[in-house]
Amino acid sequence: MNNSVMKLCIFSIITFTLVADLLAESVKWPFFAFQNGVHFKTVEERVRVLKELGYDGIGSANPSAGEQLKKRLRLYDEAKLKLFSFYVGGRLGAEGHTYNPLITEMIAGLKGRDVVIELYVQGSKKDNTDEQAVAFVREIADQAKQSGLKVVLYPHANFYIDRIGDAVRVAKKTNRDNVGVMFNLCHFLHVEPKSDLKAALVNAKPLLWRASISGAEEGGRSWGELIQTLDRGSFSQAKVIELLREVGFDGAIGLQCYAIRGDARDNLKRSMAAWLKLHSP
Q1: How far apart (Å, rounded) are the C-alpha atoms in residues 92 and 136?
Q2: How far is residue 215's CA from residue 186's CA, in Å, rounded to a whole number?
Q3: What are the CB-based long-range contacts (under 8 Å, 24+) for 261-267?
Q4: Distances from the Cα of 253 to the Cα of 3, 24, 203, 213, angstroms
Q5: How far apart are CA 236 and CA 24, in angstroms?
Q6: Three-class SS string for the chain?
Q7: How high is the mean pLDDT of the chain?
Q8: How confident is the model at residue 2 (pLDDT cuts 50, 70, 90)?
């Protein structure tokens, strides 16, 4: 290989690397608001406000089925917004698990839609087992599979699955290719504040299909401290974004809004401004 060809090869490699780095840095994930912060009287008003403020849609939505579900999907479709996910779950018990049959009806009504089922698993770490959790998750996952849907296990404080590591472990044990996990910043900070965030995300990487964020206080414990508009709180959101990029996260990100006081539209507007700022040069 002569010097000219070698120089050209080296130049091409450097250029490719720089372009790849720039593309990685410019990644912007779809951003949706949790329904628990979109406090408006009608679906039509929710759709209008989310569209005006620049959200990509809504997620962690309350379950529905039948004509109500069809209407919701139609209105988001017409506005070119997305209904990203529904938040549902069940409870483990000594005699098996229980859950609202509406979940099964809703999953059937979502057939062929690109909608994720956010699944929480209630229970006691003392009284329940992974085997019980796996049986429940498999039942929902198999229903979801028939409709072409994915399921993400949703870690929630004081539930059987309350840590992202628990979600990863149970997801792997289900042995279902449509089961992944969701990272929820507020629950991570509440349940395992001393855990290594980067290590947790790296561990979840192969199954990390969804994430949620919220403004939070560094060292906060109450939900009022851990769930704020995105422009508030001392915890570095930029750090979360950087770590998600590092692990190659390519899903959508939701805005957790539970129990945030004040005007819903103003709260959503403030959070969107902070989101855009996180991605500004």
Answers
A1: 8
A2: 9
A3: 264/37, 264/38, 264/39, 264/40, 264/49, 265/49, 265/53, 267/37, 267/229
A4: 48, 16, 18, 7
A5: 20
A6: CCHHHHHHHHHHHHHHHHHHHHHHHCCCCCEEEEHHHCCCCCHHHHHHHHHHHCCCEEECECCCCHHHHHHHHHHHHHCCCEECEEEEEEEEECCEEEECCHHHHHHHHCCCCCCEEEEEEECCCCCCCHHHHHHHHHHHHHHHHHCCCEEEECCCCCCCCCCHHHHHHHHHHHCCCCEEEEEEHHHHHHHCCCCCHHHHHHHHHHHEEEEEECECCCCCCCHHHHCECCCCCCCCHHHHHHHHHHCCCCCEEEECCCCCCCCHHHHHHHHHHHHHHHCCC
A7: 92
A8: low
Copy the structure tokens of residue 231.
Answer: 């422009």
Q: What does the pLDDT look like over 152-169, one tens digit per residue?
A: 999 999 999 999 999 999
Q: Give the tokens for residue 179.
A: 């089961």
